[in-house]
Write a structure and sequence with these properties.
Largest sheet of chain A: 10 strands, mixed
Strand content of chain B: 5-15%
Structural class of chain B: alpha/beta
Distance between the termini of chain A: 47 Å
Strand content of chain A: 15-25%
Number of strands of chain B: 8
Strand order of the largest sheet of chain A: 13-14-15-12-11-16-17-31-25-24
Radius of gyration of chain A: 29 Å
Shape of chain B: globular
Largest interface: A-B, 48 and 45 residues
Shape of chain A: globular
Helix content of chain A: 40-55%
Structural class of chain A: alpha/beta
Helix content of chain B: 40-55%
Oligomer: heterodimer
Largest sheet of chain B: 8 strands, parallel
Distance between the termini of chain B: 38 Å
Order of helices and strands of chain B: HHHEHHEHEHEHHEHEHEHEH
Number of helices of chain A: 27
Number of strands of chain A: 31
Radius of gyration of chain B: 19 Å
């Protein structure tokens, strides 16, 4: 020791500081390093008879064997969850709360075992698993013990979503278990969880804690395996909902596989999150922010701030500071308590990172890495900075999922926002400036589910987390996340005779032409309504509209894909001003629509009666429509966001309700006016713009309605109406990548194709089968509609001078 | 792993001559408190040293120590006792256990009131431990400037090697940067060949941005060191404040080429805290800064805990305070 000390005294180096893995290795040994499937609170042998290896990515050491669950195993697990569901879903709130509380306590008691196991399995630094992952796991269970306790009171009229299949990634193996399992159990769902094939060990360790707390059998089941197992779970008919976190590519596939099955879906997918540094930022603070953004968990973070955007005026000094900081990062043994970056999770991932860096270089981007070398043994990759990158570069668009930062510059706040939003993704963003005006303005304009101001990669169970755009849909955490595991029970709906789907479909023939009169009425030509203008169909064909007796009532244009295209463009163009306008203004417009409709109530009723046959029902429909407009005018400035109570001190977390964007609406067949307004009104009340396909059989109520819109100060493009074949037009909307959401009320087949085709841009779909009781406000309006019209952006604002 | 030291052209021995007061630079300083606090909070969790490395780091901390007594009841007697501890800060048998001779380790300086400089000087003659004297209306700086300057001159006269002056916090609070600049310039002149440490009294500065700006102005005015606290304010040296100061020190070195020292003082009592401060310097400024020429820890009680920790490394047994000679 002595000569060593003398030498070290002059050099002041960091020595090795390893966390002792032996207790954890003994824990593995005690289980013969061989795990089974966790089904119905039993450890069961896989019917598949297949096993695979789990290795430590830092050393290549074999840690354990786990089973590859096959079809029989998945079925067994789902059946266990299904059997457990009736009792668990009726278990009193307080009892479920006790279980969740007990799991949180168990996690804390076994914190070090879980942290070391996570690091061995995943390769992340022990500092992160110890200080970030495991504490957040405990926090998540505590928080959701609270939601279990309060579920019935806080979500009246809602029931648990049923049996949930959950598929999680390898980057935060245990934390993702918590994010998935805690809200499911709080809601009263039962769970079949599949951890990632690279990193299943902490999920299996958690099963032991679940046994210790005595959770009833079948409430949580864990099956290991690769993508094949996941696909079996997704396709199992007894699963009511799929919750998935992982790549956008797999998310798309899950969207397609579940289309038309009635399975609910929440997807938390990839990102290419921007990190914006303005010239008045604390540059040293922002440099440290970059470290937390892209060199946290080796950059294997879905919300990693991987696209650095720096204002030109400070780009030089900022990058110089950043490079100096990169030199002081330490990469190595993840169990060492003094390393910043550990190992990349698997050889295939390391290879992908290398390949993408090569692509970047070949495209002319400039690569910079620190002067020191990473360890030769194990899967390590150095922190990497690319400059000379433009939005057209592959590296600026593709998610690398590694410690690779690409940087670009901007000249103005508007250009910063434009560059930041120039991506398919919308998971998160980080904004650095000392100017609160600029910070909040930019935060509102960024398309991202989470915006961190002067901070990054902060998480808390009380705040929702999830994406905009192709980063997925649904939220995890807080009240926002609880909705994903709850649903409204199906309501009985009356079948109205002569209406919509049950109306007779007639064909044109001379016999059902109107009687000729001496003075013919002036011919009426209902048109499409696009961008505030009445327009003819792209291809002038007509669709005949008949009354219940088969008489011809009128004609509408036969819309085609170009009409839909034009309508979407008009809706997109109208969106920014409408979304940014005041809620008071939107309310005013809706009241005015109601006012003008009231003035023509009798005419609308008789027109509806001409198509449907029942005048008194038609009058009822018009009255209900006026009331509905009042409801959403009322809600326009009342469906507020909230301020979350997170565990972070001195930090406001604002859950801001924002419009989803351009919403396609395929209206129900029955109630041609009320159905249309019941969908359009909530959408525009909250700042969305709409392309509506009215009732296919009774479209004249909608074409009359645009005259009301025209006289009611509805800005052009906010509501667009395209008449024609509802199924065909809905499909065009589903396939349109500039449509952000699509609400469909119609047939099972129509719903399936809408869901399947929505996978292209992962637009949010809301599909419902007719009939629907539109006259009853309990089912025809309310928070469910408003939530569909909203996406929540969580803005984190730390404060203190 | 190599650390990129800032590109500093001047050798450490060259004193910072200061620069013109650059008010635009001062105005451009930005500090985000929550980001600084987050960095300071996680820094000790990102780095740790164990075993021989920790021993080496603790010995380095002793080398950088300004062993301090600043009390109304100080007498030549207790200052002499402090001086003896300064010459022999760690028990010779412990040093020997680490392969160091009894004369191979002493603290950087003792820090006393001006009246006690002669006593310290007497006791420290020829041993390499420097004498630092506080001055300039310590700790509040609320006496006439003429009196404060006289005090600085007297301390230098009495044989101090270094003078730790307090700045007028009022100048910082009122944004009177030129007044602060001129005050520190005057102190530097009065101190003559003595090294000048400017004490910011950060516990009495309202924001971290004020701390950063005051640091910068002191450096422009020719300070050799920037020191956090007198030890008499309600809040002493904290890691966020230290972080903000050393980042200014780094920027100043990069722009002017002059290395200014940093001295956290007040409230540093444990070996663990000493390691955290060394880590801060190592990470933000680089190893070369963690030398007595550019880094000091001002403390009185710290040494005992460090000695106990060293003893533990040697013997594997936890040590008691009374097994180590008190200062």
């Amino acid at each position: 020791m002595s000569t060593r000390v003398r030498d070290l005294l002059e050099r002041l180096e960091y020595g090795p500081a390893p966390e002792d893995p032996r207790p954890t290795l003994r824990w593995l040994d005690a289980r013969q390093r061989r795990f089974r499937l966790f089904i119905g609170n039993e450890w069961v042998e896989p019917q598949s008879g297949e096993w695979f290896e789990i290795r430590n990515p830092a050393t290549g050491e074999l840690l354990a064997h786990v089973p590859q669950a096959g079809p029989g195993d998945v079925d067994r697990a789902v059946r266990a969850a299904r059997e457990a569901y009736p009792a668990w879903s009726r278990t009193p709130d307080h009892v479920r709360a006790r279980y969740l509380y007990a799991i949180a306590r168990q996690v804390q008691k076994h914190a070090r075992l879980l942290a070391v196991l996570e690091t061995l399995d995943n390769g992340k630094p022990i500092r992160e698993s110890r200080d970030i992952d495991v504490p957040l796991v405990a926090r998540h269970f505590y928080h959701h013990a609270g939601w279990a306790q309060l579920r019935t009171r806080e979500f009246p009229g809602y029931e648990p979503a049923g049996v949930v299949g959950q598929i999680i990634p390898w980057n935060f193996p245990l934390l993702m278990v918590a994010w998935k399992v805690a809200p499911a159990l709080a809601a009263g769902c039962t769970v079949v969880l599949k951890p990632a094939e690279f990193t299943p060990l902490t999920a299996l360790a958690l099963c032991e804690l679940i046994l210790e707390v005595g959770l009833p059998p079948g409430v949580v089941n864990v099956i290991t395996g690769d993508g094949r197992t996941g696909e079996l779970l997704v396709q199992h008919p007894q699963v009511d909902k799929i919750a998935f976190t992982g790549s956008t590519e797999v998310g798309r596939r899950i969207r397609q596989l579940t289309a038309g099955t009635g399975k609910r879906l929440s997807l938390e997918l990839g990102g290419k999150s921007p990190f914006l540094v303005f010239e008045d930022a604390d540059l040293d603070g922002a440099v440290e922010g970059v470290v937390d953004a892209i060199w946290f968990n080796q950059g294997q973070v879905c919300c990693a701030g991987s696209r650095l955007l720096v204002q030109e005026s400070v780009a030089g000094p900022f990058l110089e500071k950043l490079r100096a900081r990169m030199e002081t990062l330490r990469v190595g043994d993840p169990l060492d308590k003094a390393v910043d970056m550990g190992a990349i999770v698997a050889p295939v991932q390391l290879e992908r990172i290398r390949q993408l860096c090569e692509v970047g270089r070949s495209e002319g981007a400039r690569l910079w890495q620190p002067s020191w070398a990473v360890p030769q043994e194990g899967l390590f990759f150095p922190p990497t900075l690319f400059t000379d990158v433009s939005p057209a570069s592959t590296l600026a668009q593709v998610e690398i999922f590694g410690p690779v930062l690409v940087s670009m510059t901007f000249r103005s706040p508007s250009e910063a926002v434009a560059l930041a939003n120039n991506t398919r993704f919308g998971l998160a963003a980080s904004v650095w400036t000392e100017n609160v005006n600029l910070a909040l303005d930019v935060a509102r304009r960024l398309q991202a589910g989470t915006v961190w101001i002067n901070c990054t990669n902060l998480f808390d169970a009380a705040s929702g987390f999830g994406g905009y755009r192709e980063s997925g849909f649904g939220r995890e955490g807080g009240r926002e996340g609880m909705w994903e595991y709850l649903h409204r029970p199906a309501r009985p709906a009356p079948a109205w005779p002569g209406r919509g789907w049950s109306a007779p479909e007639s064909h044109p023939s001379p016999s059902n032409r109107p009687e000729p009169t001496t003075t013919p009425p002036v011919d009426r030509t209902p048109k499409m309504y696009v961008g505030g203008k009445q327009v003819r169909p792209d291809a002038p064909y007509v669709r005949f509209v008949y009354g219940p007796d088969g008489r011809l009532v009128g004609e509408v244009g036969e819309g085609n894909r170009k009409d839909v295209r034009n309508a979407v463009e008009a809706a997109r163009a109208a969106l920014p001003a409408w979304a940014a306008g005041s809620a008071q203004l939107r309310a005013q417009v809706l009241y005015y629509v109601a006012e003008n409709l009231e003035a023509r109530a009798a005419e609308f009723a008789s027109r509806i009666a001409a198509m449907t046959g029942d005048l008194s029902l038609a009058e009822l429909e018009v009255r209900a429509t006026i009331q509905r407009l009042f409801s959403y005018a009322a809600w326009a400035d009342k469906f507020d966001g909230s301020v979350h109570s997170t565990a972070h001190l001195q930090c406001l977390v604002l859950a801001v309700h924002e419009p989803v964007g351009v919403v396609g609406v395929a209206c129900p067949e029955a109630f041609p006016l009320l159905g249309l307004v019941s969908l359009v009104a909530p959408a525009i009340a909250l700042g969305n713009t709409v392309v509506a396909i009215p009732s296919q059989r009774h479209p004249l109520a909608a074409t009359d309605f645009y005259q009301v819109l025209d006289t009611s100060d509805v800005p052009g493009g906010v509501v667009n109406i395209v008449t024609g074949d509802r199924e065909a037009l809905a499909l065009v909307l589903a396939q349109h990548d500039d449509v952000d959401a699509l609400w469909y009320f119609g047939t099972r087949e129509g719903a399936a194709s809408v869901e399947r085709e929505s996978a292209g841009n992962l637009k949010r779909t809301w599909t419902n089968l007719e009939p629907w009781d539109w006259l009853d406000p309990a089912s025809g309006e309310g928070v469910e509609f408003l939530r569909q019209a909203t996406q929540v952006k969580n803005v984190w604002i730390p404060y203190g001078e | 792993m190599a650390t990129a030291a800032p590109k500093v052209t001047q050798a450490a021995a060259v004193r910072n001559p200061g620069t013109e007061l650059d008010l635009a630079w001062v105005a451009s300083v930005r500090v985000n408190r929550s980001a600084a606090e987050r960095r300071a909070r996680t820094l000790p969790t990102r780095r740790t040293v164990k075993r021989e490395w920790q021993v080496a780091w603790l010995l380095r901390a002793v080398r950088c120590l300004d062993l301090t007594t600043l009390s109304g009841d100080d007498t030549p007697g207790n200052v002499r006792r402090l001086a003896h501890k300064a010459r022999q800060p760690v028990r010779p048998d412990i040093l020997q256990g680490f392969g160091l001779g009894p004369n191979e380790l002493h603290v950087a300086a003792v820090c006393v009131y001006p009246n006690l400089v002669p006593a310290a000087r007497e006791a420290l003659r020829g041993c390499g431990v420097r004498i630092a004297s506080v001055a300039a209306g310590f700790p509040a700086a609320q006496t006439p400037l003429r009196a404060r300057l006289l005090e600085v001159e007297e301390a230098a006269h009495a044989g101090a090697d270094e003078v730790d002056v307090v700045i007028s916090r009022a100048h910082v609070l009122r944004g009177e940067w030129r007044a602060l600049y001129e005050e520190v310039r005057a102190f530097r002149e009065a101190a003559g060949g003595c090294h000048l440490k400017t004490i910011l009294g950060t516990g009495e500065l309202p924001t971290l941005r004020h701390v950063a700006q005051a640091t910068l102005v002191c450096m422009m005015a020719g300070a050799d060191f920037v020191k956090t606290s007198t030890g008499k304010e309600g809040v002493n040296a904290t890691l966020p404040v230290g972080l903000v100061i050393v980042r200014q020190v780094r920027d100043y070195a990069q722009r002017t080429g002059y290395r200014v020292g940093f001295k956290p003082a007040g409230g540093i009592r444990t070996a663990k805290q000493a390691l955290e401060w060394l880590t801060l310097i190592r990470e933000e400024l680089g190893e070369s800064w963690a030398q007595p020429e550019t880094f000091r820890i001002g403390a009185s009680g710290l040494l005992t805990d460090v000695e106990r920790q060293l003893s533990y490394h040697l013997t594997g047994r936890y040590s008691a305070a009374h097994h180590h000679p008190m200062p």
